[in-house]
Amino acid sequence: MIIRNAWVYTPDHHFTQKDLIFDGPYIRTQTANPAEIDASGLYAIPGLIDIHLHGCMGHDFCDAAADTLNAMAAYQARNGVTGFIPASMAFSEKKLSGIFKNAARRPQETGAMLLGVNMEGPFLSEAKKGAQNGRYLVPPDISMFRRLNAVSDGLIKLVTLAPELAGAAEFITALKDETVISLGHTEACFETAAQAFTLGASHVTHLFNAMPPFNHREPGLIGAAFDHPSVTAELICDGVHVAPAMIRAAFKLFSAGRIVFISDSMRAAGLGDGEYTLGGQTVQVCGNRATLADGTLAGSVTNLMDCLRNAVAFGIPLTDAVQAAAVNPARVIGESDRLGSLEPGKLANVVLLDKRLNVVKIFIKGIAVS
């Protein structure tokens, strides 16, 4: 397959008009396949990677149903998200074990690639639990994590914890080389967060949300993350969780190389208004807002491609938005050797967009998504 004359997103984060070639599932410098697409006037970007979402199209990762992951993968693929990491919620170890076992036994995949699982809970602060169910919150537990990672067949790519909890330092020290440790749902002060990053935490769960604000006398987790240049930070760009001005400020504060767009979507994504559930709790969806009965935001109802479009509408350059939605997520989860850029040898996960950022064509491992 040869995609002719596209504006191709390059590894140095620019667009260059050229041909993009792939043969079978991989991007190549030449191909025996004579099929061509005239992509004049179109952008060619790496497939997006959502490393934090809970559900879509009426499905939730925590349902642990036989068709859940395939249904989620199909929706993501249709929207230019070619890889995803679904997130759990705070539940009992028994419930989480069933959820992760279901991920481990997913059959031959179609749609977006399942790249792992995200363990969001139960090692969270009661005061900053957000839409998580407080009855299941527990201190960080190394043995529990390892049991759950074993039943998931090693799929847990990220785990969120509040660093002020008892046992957090020991958890980070023991597991920093086994998974990405992300700080979030926390009341941590600057010093506590900074110590956690020094010990090996390297990521922030949905920056600005479920954490103290960035204050001039108490910079908190946000200031500590800024002070550690290797730390990456998630942003929900649904137009609800974080104001446009703060999206722009985050890019100035952290740079495009450290921001990771996520959707944090729940099961209502792709559907309409109504009553849904998240983590066993009732959620009311109205327009682009999903809330618990007390008004607490309960995930988003968008997808990552819409988040990218929102970011551009908010004033983020398209090159930076692509970096945050495709390149950086691949790096965070250790998949940069095969995903996140359109270089020879990488998987041919490609999205063609028109100038208004509408999806024109999607390829996953070189195969067009219908």
TrEMBL record:
A GO biological process of this protein is: N-acetylglucosamine catabolic process
- Catalytic residues per the record? D264 (proton donor/acceptor)
Q: Which UniProt keywords apply?
A: Carbohydrate metabolism, Hydrolase, Metal-binding
Keyword Signal assigned to the entry: answer is: no
UniProt: substrate binding residues? A131, N209, A210, R217, H241, L297, A298, G299
> Which Enzyme Commission number(s) are listed?
3.5.1.25
Stated family = Belongs to the metallo-dependent hydrolases superfamily. NagA family.
The protein's matches in NCBIfam families, at most eight in alphabetical order, are given as:
nagA (TIGR00221)
User: What name is this protein filed under?
Assistant: N-acetylglucosamine-6-phosphate deacetylase
Q: Which organism is it from?
A: Eubacterium maltosivorans
Upper lineage: Bacteria, Bacillati, Bacillota, Clostridia, Eubacteriales
